[in-house]
Amino acid sequence: KPAANEGKTAVLKVGTEPSFAPFEFQDEKSKDYAGFDMDLIRAIGKQMGAEVEIQSMGFDGLIPALEAGNIDVAVSGMTITEERTQKVNFSKPYYKSGLTVVVKTGNSSIKGFGDLEGKKIGAQIGTTGAEEAKKIKNAQVREFNTPPEAFMELKAGGVDAVINDKPVNDYFMKETGSKDAQQVGEPLTAEDYGIAMSKKNTELADKINKALDELKQNGEYDKIYEKWFGK
Ligand code: GLN
Q: Using a 6 Å cutoff on CB, does residue 78 contact ligand 1?
């Protein structure tokens, strides 16, 4: 099979860190990859006539995997940032996000980002949340492999707050977290998610953007959006 990055997109190798519901997670029984990003990249693959193969890796391993050519695209709720743009290409933005703070239920001293000075803060390694945490004065930042691990440590009392993406925090609150944790304050950032690709592969970016445009025009993007986020 020719690789997607040779122009004939027979197979599109996708990398993701699947502990970021509702964007990417593994179904408990089938272990299939599910979520908004996973539906979106499958729809993009279909639109491009490519077979989508999804593999799991650490979030901080995604950009190195793109640079090494081990995957064609990273779809992982990844924010388009200046720093990452030096290393990889991004598709057009496909989802608007931002960071919020999660604290233990009943914590009345942390009401938002302004109250985090000198606190113990948890975040996922390699993320914009971890970057923002490191900017806070005298904060002790602990980086976890996945957001659920950071939430567990919050529950255990090892960190005072977790900084993570708002839609993922919303979902966590709705599904499981609300008895142990609460989300506080206004979002700190406005971030756009993009599909990341190797810089060597400019043709692929054009194809992905074209497919994304088509899915927005034909209503497929809206269908996937509503499935995961409602109207
Ligand atoms: N959007 C954040 C980032 O890009 C977090 C992504 C994630 O944890 N999957 O850093």
A: yes
